[in-house]
Design a protein that fits this description.
Elements lengths: L1 H4 L8 H26 L6 H16 L2 H13 L4 H15 L1 H17 L17 H13 L7 H5 L3 H15 L7 H13 L5 H14 L3 H15 L1 H17 L5
Helix pairs in contact: 2-3, 2-12, 3-4, 3-5, 3-10, 3-12, 4-6, 5-6, 5-10, 7-9, 10-11, 10-12, 11-13, 12-13
């Protein structure tokens, strides 16, 4: 075993690795047993939901090694090629093209190995001329009538960014086929939860999740299953924020 794994060279031992493996096993066993019951309450297939949230959280946390480990597991457990790519596309406006491009390339490489014909069928649902109008309508649905525009941004001379939110992020990305709006808001929650310094954005998308039917109880289950991949501090911050938003929305946690 030492010759094969080079344990001493890597500063570890058999007992250390066995203990680490058992700790991870028992933690994940609890999550796998408890969370599917909660996740299935939304009507979404729990297997796909379970793995899609983990994939999104890993991308948000920028964990390529973990992504490469979970990619074949997700694909062979029911997350389709379209869904995998849509998760990455949705991540683009939330974490930036520079951060999502490596994941898109890795998915394409993997799908080629699986003999999936590329490019996949287009999933865009709204033409360019109507994206701003559709995005503004979706913005009101998800964030309320007061979210039509951000007056503070306009006063700072950044009104163009506010317009891009409706026309680009909401109008071009969240209206795509391949994932339902309920699933897309769940993915947005995972992507934001896994990143630092996104408290306001996370709060807004928690409210949007509640509006599309993803309950506070459901979101806490999602945060719990993503915890091994993003760590305790970020998962706990997400749970606290869920409780605060749910309380203001008069939902029971």
């Amino acid at each position: 075993m030492e010759k094969f794994f080079h344990l001493k060279e890597n500063g570890t031992s058999v007992s250390t690795e066995v203990m680490a493996g058992l700790t991870t096993f028992f933690a994940m066993s609890y999550i796998i047993v408890v969370n599917p019951q909660i996740l299935s309450q939304t009507g979404m297939p729990w297997g796909g939901v379970f793995l899609a949230t983990i994939i999104a959280a890993i991308i948000g946390a920028q964990g390529m090694d973990a992504f490469e480990m979970m990619l074949p597991i997700s694909y062979h457990s029911g997350v389709t090629s379209v869904e995998l790519k849509e998760i990455v596309y949705e991540a683009t406006p939330l974490i930036g093209f520079a951060h999502t491009l490596p994941y898109l390339k890795r998915i394409n490489d993997y799908l080629n190995v699986e003999n999936v014909e590329l490019p996949l069928a287009p999933q865009s649902a709204i033409d360019k001329q109507n994206r701003t109008q559709e995005g503004a309508s979706l913005r009101r649905t998800l964030f309320g009538e007061s979210a039509d525009s951000d007056e503070e941004f306009r006063k700072m001379g950044a009104g163009h960014i506010d317009s891009w939110i409706s026309g680009d992020y909401l109008g071009a990305y969240l209206t795509r086929n391949g994932l339902s709006l309920q699933e897309r808001e769940m993915i947005a929650f995972c992507l934001l939860m896994a990143q630092p310094d996104c408290a306001n954005e996370l709060r807004g998308h928690i409210m949007a999740n509640l509006r599309v039917g993803n309950t506070a109880h459901f979101l806490i289950a999602v945060a719990s299953q993503c915890l091994p991949y993003i760590g305790y501090p970020r998962a706990m911050n997400a749970v606290k924020t869920i409780a605060e938003v749910a309380h203001s929305d008069k939902q029971t946690v």
